[in-house]
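Technical note accompanying the year-one report. For the benefit of new consortium partners, we illustrate the data format agreed upon in the data management plan: each record pairs a sequence with a structure-token string. No post-processing was applied to the example shown here.
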Amino acid sequence: MVIAVLCVFSHNAPAQSTVNKAWHTAFGELLASFDWTASAVDAYGYVFTTGNTRLSNGKIAAYTTKHDSLGNLVWDQEFEATGIDASYGVAIQLDGSGNVYVAGAAYSASSLHFDFLVVKYENDGDQVWYATRNGTGNGDDYASALIVDGAQNVYVTGPSKGVGTQMDFMTLKLYANGMAHWAKRYDYAQLDEAPVAISFLNTTTIEVSGG
């Protein structure tokens, strides 16, 4: 289940401000699986939200929506693909052209593991491409954050099972067409690590943080 809330800030005095709820909406199946959700707002006040929902066939699917500034649903998309038995939306970003990028996890019943999942939608909700990535340890991998540069290259990070290690940082760069460019891993003392944020330091350097 996904809940979207739009709040409006107003300043009543130099040292005071109030928050007023403009609207809220709940959507998706109440019995969906993990409570992963994220949202982004564009310059026109449209709200893009991702999470997961349970489909009529019983499967779990990453669920992405666009609402206007009044809370009206513009479009929604349930992600399904051959070989993916469940999918989850965890993070969402927009690029300068209004395209929508969702990162999360895809589960396969044949492997019994999660892989990174990245899905690109056009601003009208049409799916452009999707990509998955299995980590080196052939275990569970969850994309938790992403950013997009001016050329629509996608940088995504998340925890990933390593070889001879626990959960490590795994960071990927995808070209604008969804093809993989590179993948980097980071492990500290063979402990569990989980990245939670990724950002640009400059035009050639990205920073990944977590714990």
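Partners are asked to follow this layout when depositing records. The chain has no helices and 16 strands.
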